[in-house]
Amino acid sequence: MTFISILCALLIEQLKPLRADNPAYAAIRSLAARMEGWFNAGQESQGRLAWIVMMMVLIVPTLLLYWLCTKISPFAALALNILICYLTLGFRHYSHYFTSIQLALNSGDMVAARRLLAEWTRQDTAEMEVSEISRIAVENALITTHRNVFGVFFWFLMPLGPAGAIMYRVAEHLARAWNEPDHMKNEAFGRFAVKAFYVLDWIPARLTAIAFAIVGNFEDAIYAWRNFANRWNDEAIGIILSAGGGAMGLRLGASSEIAADILPADASVIDSTAAIIDSPPGEEASVRALQSTVGLVWRALLLWMLLLLLLSLAVWLG
User: Where are the coiled-coil regions (predicted)?
Assistant: First the structure.
């Protein structure tokens, strides 16, 4: 049932992509803001309580509804699985930015490419050249694909099922929403959300990196992972970008001064102690790197689906 649910959700999303500003996501953002307003008094313990309450409000009704659907009919449970998978997966949420940037660069329209990248990352891109635009687009594509697809896959397969997928996506949002805005930066309230998402993303991030290594240049991916992942402030991002860059033969990441300005708040990278001269192996990102990224992501997705199919068959035959 899990394989069929994910496959159907992916097919539906290809036909009718769910917009990033859809009502379901807007409701989650509104609830997160309300929780912050109700609980935030500047203490980490209050952030922990708000996080737990937020999860209970979403996960408990989902589990009850799923249990009710299983009692009614297997088809009702399957329909609920497909719906939640469709709402939590985000394979096409931001792909229009990536595709549009690729088309703009291919046609030599730097103004459009900079504008699209600025809309996507919410950063100043006025002075960026082709290589920098390409690198940032590749980095954001790898991170958003992991958090919107592969991380959801992992938690959808866990015993919580659809509730696990919701927990992962909401945890990712809270880690950003309670730390990213100007009025929330450096506040104790959002620290627990970051710690919680770190735990939830620990295994998925490494599985994504392994998938990139398997479907790409395995030796370079593992080498970059082992030797350069610690250059990023965010451990999970470092693992994914170093392995993804090594798998494609690209040199991802920038100096800490540049990275702080060009990547979104949920993807702050390279540690200031990293020596620029000792950089990861690979070529500088170019327009061709965007096409390589598309191929890597699709191959990784097919690998996940193949493994899921084999697991489903083993369970069914067993």
Answer: none
